[in-house]
Design brief:
Helices cover 33% and strands 23% of the residues. The protein is an alpha+beta fold. It has a single domain, classed as Cysteine proteinases (Cathepsin B, Chain A, Alpha-Beta Complex), CATH 3.90.70.10. The strands form 2 sheets. A 7-stranded mixed β-sheet has the order 2-1-9-3-4-5-6, covered by helices on one side. The protein has a two-stranded antiparallel sheet with strand order 7-8.
């Protein structure tokens, strides 16, 4: 049975991914203390938008078997690693590009691009969507956890354009629900959220960690 310590987002609502990373670290390294400032540094969080690649690379450096599942058609990290903003301008509508820029998404773009290059070269990015049954099977293992990227409003069953959000996925609670730690805001421990919304998975990008590499079987991935 998995027992995962719960951590909350910050009051400015900018650290949902960092809270999930802290949960992972407390689970896999229960005797080590990771300061919030260290987690921010390693995930390139400076009070705004956070990208997945720096966190993926850091968890890999710590010796954890870590993979990021994301369809290339949704976001091609190889193209981003090579062309950066040129790719983003081609990928996103002009309005979204400007919105992301205004929200601080490009604040650490050089480091994010470098992390993406490392992630791609080490094959830590799997250019496919992890469907719900595949994810469910993986996290049946007591040593496997995942972080899912979603839209905050979807967790409440509201299908709308909204704010990107990260939660720690613990298990498939029922055929129609996941059990997650939602760092918030508002923070909700052991929250039950729908598996699908409007006919598709509630999660897009999914970071899967099965534990220390030396104890992970290859077939788990």
């Amino acid at each position: 049975m998995k027992i995962v310590k719960f951590y909350k987002n910050t009051v400015d609502n900018t650290h949902c991914l960092q809270a999930c990373i802290k949960m992972l670290l407390s689970f896999y390294f229960p005797k080590r203390k990771f300061e919030d400032s260290k987690i921010d540094q390693k995930t390139l969080q400076e009070g705004g938008h956070t990208w997945f690649p720096p966190a993926v690379c850091w968890l890999d450096e710590l010796g954890l078997k870590t993979l990021l599942f994301c369809k290339a058609s949704s976001f091609n990290y190889k193209f981003f690693a090579n062309d950066r903003e040129k790719y983003l301008k081609q990928k996103w509508p002009k309005e979204r590009y400007q919105k992301e820029k205004d929200n601080g998404a490009f604040k650490n773009i050089d480091q994010v691009q470098n992390a993406s290059k490392i992630m791609v070269s080490k094959k830590l990015w799997i250019p496919k969507r992890l469907n719900d049954d595949e994810l469910s099977k993986k996290i049946e293992d007591d040593q496997t956890l995942a972080i899912g990227k979603t839209i905050h409003q979807w967790l409440s069953g509201i299908y709308t354009d909204g704010s990107p959000h990260y939660v720690l996925i613990q298990k498939r609670y029922s055929p129609t629900q996941w059990k997650v730690h939602d760092p918030g805001l508002p923070p909700l421990e052991n929250r039950k959220v729908p598996v699908t919304i409007n006919g598709h998975s509630i999660f897009g990008d999914i970071l899967v960690v099965c534990g220390p590499r030396k104890s992970c079987r290859t077939e788990r991935f």
